[in-house]
Here is the input.
Amino acid sequence: MKTMIKSVWQFQWTVCLVAMCICFPYYGFTQSTAFIELLPGQVSSLSSGEQQFVQNIAALAMTADTRIVELGELKQQQQGGYMQLTIPDFETSNFIVEAERVDWQNDSTYTWSGKVLNEPGGYAIFMATPDGKSGVIQLEQNFYALLPLGGDNAVLVKQNYEAAYTAECGVSGYQASPPIENDCDEE
Here is the structure.
């Protein structure tokens, strides 16, 4: 009987230890705010130039929808090369992104890219310059762009796939220009 109780106890601790090892890299994600935070009603606080920019983006045939968002501090969002990503108002899932390439100069100048582990073919790229933050997120069924508005604010743009795939060259009414001759090779 003692041996059986000891075996059950060891089995329970082993299962617990294995679960902790699997879940530990993701545990810290629940402790922080999301990297992309929705800013409802913030269009009115934008400058007239920023409002016009948002309206122009929203009017494009390839834009399905837009939201004004605030992008958090990426350095604080990632842990051990992983970050949790949510896309407010558009996606109900949480995505785990694993860094593949990071070029970090400082908190206001970086490029961070990685693959979305729980979305086949998914990837995310985030960039920051002193002028603002931007990025792209590709999921299996949706594509999103983060266009900078300055500082930490951005326009989250959900692409209209139907318009993108039915338009010639991705843009309705696009006329290709004639090829430019390469004069560099002539001597």
